Amino acid sequence: MTRKTMNPASKARKGRKAGRRHPLASVALIAIGLLFTGGAYAAFSTTTASAESDANSQQTIDDGEKLFAANCATCHGLSAQGSGDGPSLIGVGAASVDFQVGTGRMPLQMQGPQALKKPVQFTEEQTAALAAYVASLAPGPAIPEGEVLDGEGDAAVGAELFRINCAMCHNVAGAGGALTEGKFAPSLADVSAVHVYEAMVTGPQNMPVFNDMNISPENKRDIITYLKYIEDNPSPGGLAIGSLGPVAEGLFIWIFGLGAIVALTVWITAKSN
Questions:
Q1: Where is this region: Disordered (predicted)?
Q2: Where are the domains of the chain?
Q3: How far is CA 251 from the centre of its chain?
Q4: What is the pTM assigned to this prediction?
Q5: Domains 36-143 and 144-262 equal at CATH topology level
Q6: Domain 36-143 maps to which CATH number in 3.30.390, 1.10.357, 1.10.760, 1.10.10?
Q7: Fewer CB within 10 Å: C terminus or N terminus of the chain?
Q8: Which CATH number does 144-262 carry?
Q9: What is the CB-side half-sphere exposure of residue 124 using CA atoms within 13 A?
């Protein structure tokens, strides 16, 4: 038997066929390269952004600590532990600071039955820094955000909840009312949604705390919606007389109603003579 030999030209052609790459091999290699490059860049960008965010957060806390030491430590203590002139702020959360400072109640102008609302003493950035510092001391209610503040809840449900939980102090129309020992429930007209929500979760002054177990975030949204509704819609009964209820209305009737009757009686008597 004779062995069939392959000439050099045929061998070269066969070698070229065996070593030929698939037409999509280059595309696959490029895709894999882009995938690894993109993944590495995304990981690097995320790490960098996270580091910058952490640095910014820490810088905000540090700024808040300096502001606290200069403006608040006299009453609340250098470590916010409280003193005879002010309560501890450990655990009150950012929401409490944002409410008290954001409405001008703090820093306290003078000692009295309760802190009064006045022009705000700090910028929004400074208020945020103070809130971040106090929040860093211990967990507490955070500053609310998102749809709970949009005023798009159920006004009817909010009205019912307000009458049950809030009207005994703030009046059914949110006009405010007197309490004992010189204290009072303030009017809720023109109060921002975020401050209404913060008041509910922190319980400032004489107000009780309504946590999420008492009133859910969705129901808090409904209450805010109701308050915005009565703020945007005038009294359907005509003159509201301060929306203070039967006291103001009764006084009006006694003064003007009885006055009109007396005047009419005098006029009739004078005409008969």
A1: 1-20
A2: 36-143, 144-262
A3: 39
A4: 0.70
A5: yes
A6: 1.10.760
A7: N
A8: 1.10.760
A9: 0
Q: Is 75 annotated as a binding residue?
A: yes
Is 169 annotated to bind a ligand? Reply is yes
> What is the rounded distance in angstroms from the CA atom of residue 128 to the CA atom of residue 64?
8
Cβ atoms of 86 and 76 closer than 8 Å: yes
Give helix 155-165 / helix 217-232 axis angle, nearest 10°.
Answer: 100
> What pLDDT sits at residue 51?
44
Average pLDDT of span 55-60: 81
Q: What is the mean pLDDT of residues 121-147?
A: 96
Torsion-angle region of 5 (φ positive above 0: left; ψ -120 to 50: alpha; else: beta): beta
Beta carbons of 201 and 166 less than 8 angstroms apart: no
The Cα-based distances of 135 to 92, 184, 196 in angstroms read 8, 28, 19
Token pair, residue 176, equals 């405010």
Q: What is the 3-state secondary structure (H, E, C) of the chain?
A: CCCCCCCHHHHHHHHHHHHCCCCCHHHHHHHHHHHHHHHHHHHHHHHHHHHHHHHHHHHHHHHHHHHHHHHCHHHHCCCCCCECCECCCCCCHHHHHHHHHHCCCCCCCCCCCCCCCCCCCCCHHHHHHHHHHHHHHCCCCCCCCHHHHCCCCCHHHHHHHHHHHCHHHHCCCCCCEECCCCCEECCCCCCCHHHHHHHHHHCCCCCCCCCCCCCCHHHHHHHHHHHHHHHHCCCCCCCCHHHCCHHHHHHHHHHHHHHHHHHHHHHHHHHHC
195 is in an annotated binding site: no
Q: How far is CA 137 from the centre of its chain?
A: 20
Q: Is 72 annotated as contributing to ligand binding?
A: yes
Question: CB–CB of 122/170 below 8 Å?
Answer: no
